[in-house]
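User
Here is a favour to ask of a fellow structure person. I am asking you to supply a protein in sequence and structure-token form. Please set it down just below, with no commentary around it:

Assistant
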Amino acid sequence: MQIGMVGLGRMGMNMARRLLRGGHQVAGYDMSPAKVGELVREENAKGAFSLEELVSRLSPPRFVWLMVPAGRTVDENVDTLAGLLQEGDTIIDGGNSFYKDDCRRSEHLARRGINYLDIGVSGGIWGLEHGYCLMIGGDQDIFKKIEPAVATLATKDGYLYCGPCGAGHFVKMVHNGIEYGMLAAYGEGFDIMEKSPFCESLDFAKVAHLWNNGSVVRSWLLELAENAFNKDPRLAGIKGYVEDSGAGRWTVLQAIEESVSAPVLALSLFQRFRSRETDTFSDKLIAALRNEFGGHEVRKKEGKGEK
């Protein structure tokens, strides 16, 4: 099928590549002409250097997939596209938007006869090779029309229609909140070992590898921890400064709104705030893992290319 991809960053570029390699037609647009040129040159995609040109390259009913930062950038793109698309066309937000924003945007577009789907996407920079996990919200009939593209993007059993508008990003929000807690637990565990009397005899890459073979704490994050430790055995070049993308905050706020006890998720969020004032081994590992799965920037220690 035919898809317009807006945003060719870490996620959008690889998603466009996977769609093209799966036999779909993709028209790509990014504010960076170099990114557009790269996709056209390397994958034989259609390039567009404005949203107007992107829409003109698609046949109705059009499907335009946004992979841009949550918040104002999504609103700006949605507002512009609303004036360019026709009744029956569909906008898909595949970023990490707040689910309540999805409901607002969907209502706004519905008055113009334009459909809206929210699709939470997980898989990071590894999705091109291994496939993504996708969580879909919106009208189910519209989802069925885009399902062939979703199936191409997804790993085996890696997508789910979650319910009406907002459901996809809601499930992705909770997913990211859980991720915060898991990263914090791994970080604290390796921090305890790093400060222990056995630190010098422990190879952390081998510990992570061991735990992924039969242990109850095995996970893909431990595979990535092994990768990170193989690159830098004691994470000496990484500053323990951990950003948060917003989803963790929204998950904690949702727990407050629903009077749900979520102390692990809340404390893991607060730990990220604290990381910006101190520099612990635990935070170094969380920063390293975020870089491994999502390509998120790490801050280097002074003398090693501080960013």
